[in-house]
Amino acid sequence: MKSDKEKIDKKTSAEAAMKVKPVFEREYDTLNKKLADKVAIVTGGDSGIGRAICIAFAREGARVGIVYIDDDADAKETKKLVEEKGSEALLINADISIEKNCRKVIRQVIDKWKQLDILVNNAAFQFPADIEKIEEKNLLKTFRTNIFSQLFLVQAALPHLKEGSSIINTTSSTAYTGNPFLLDYSSSKGAIVSFTRSLSGMLNSKKIRVNAVAPGPIWTPLIASTFPDETLDTFGKDTPMQRAGQPAEVAPAYVFLASDDASYITGQVLHVNGGTIVNG
After folding, report:
1. Is 28 among the catalytic positions?
2. Domains plus CATH for the chain?
3. Tag placement on the chain: N or C end, fewer CB within 10 Å?
4. pTM over 0.85
5. pLDDT for 163-197, tens place per residue?
6. By three-state DSSP, how is residue 40 classified?
């Protein structure tokens, strides 16, 4: 004979007996794409991870504002790739380390498409050096590009974001593991983690989600242009997967966080790093 406690447990664990039923399936539109009718801004969108994000967003139906600095050839190629996916792209050449330029970026996108749903703060700068060789101008450029721009862009974007909008910031595995040759870069990426967590709490009442992606060693032009040639052959070999990742392997994380699939996720960091286990 079962005890009263066992009877109670059986009753409360049966879904059929629940007055308020769990939602086990949402509407799933097989005809529309995950980001259909959305407008996104991707900084550093001309190459590397940024280009992969732009292409992945376009495949899911989003129109994309591609923000870049100076590299017109790469930016035009990304625009072409986005348009080949059947979407629209807007090229915006801007130094987003300067506040007024961030306001101009948002204004151009709003002027063109009259809306903004997704902001991806992805642009970054790094200058590998021992601490004794870190120059003030490079330190300022690193922080202004990597973290100041994120704050400036969010400030400018907020009046146009609405319930269901998504902000995604690119941090780095170096924020968690450190890197002895990227001291200032790693520090700026750590600031992005704190920024993401704090901003998510601030925007919860507006129902705007804020998350981040922390890529590990990903093969991009930034790596090829700033790391010593003798280190490139072994780049990423120290991960559990023993290889560097590709931008196309990171971009799906941004699609997930931008879409309704991640509707119950905010203030979090997704780690796309080849298997390295980190806390946080």
Report:
1. no
2. 34-272 (3.40.50.720)
3. N
4. yes
5. 999 999 999 999 999 989 899 999 999 999 999 99
6. strand
